[in-house]
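Researcher: Re-running this chain for the archive, since the previous output was lost when a drive failed. Same request as before.
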Amino acid sequence: MQETLVKYIPERAIMPIIDLIKKHKIHLIITPKRSTKHGDYRRMPNGQHQITVNGSENPYQFLLTLVHEIAHLVAFEKYGQNIKPHGQHWKVSFQELLIPFLQESIFPKKLLPYLINYIKNPKASTGTDAQLSVALKNYNEDADAYHYVFELPEGSTFRAQNGKLFIKGKIRRKRYECLEVNGGRTFVFSPNAQVELIK
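Model: Regenerated structure tokens:
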């Protein structure tokens, strides 16, 4: 386990994570990149706890995702299966699990203020926190390969993950209206959708 985790999370986080995995009898699966999620937690029919995390994540996103998913397990065990997946019980569990990791020996000093702000009221995904998303993206090997929609200037052309080209329009409430170049139809994009800037 230690030999595997050293490839994915900061070294000083390995032993505390192994302790959590053993304590909660977690079956950890490292998956190829999934564009729809960073990870997930499932209680299997045999009662085993299974957590999956994208192996393509940078070490800090991987650790954050893993702790996020362990918090689901802890919250369900402590408060029961009928709680909201990202409700108050999960938030408290996530805060309690993550706070011991918020130190410079694990996370870069530049990243800590964003994490401390995020953990005050964590959301269902780190992707919903624009500042944290950008800060985490800086540690990706392909950091320059994609942008978030909210970062792009209005009128710029980008390629979505489905391969189609769009022109960024104005924000409407919380999403951006974008014109599909070939079809001429308008679609809405989350501010934190990852896209490739064309021009």
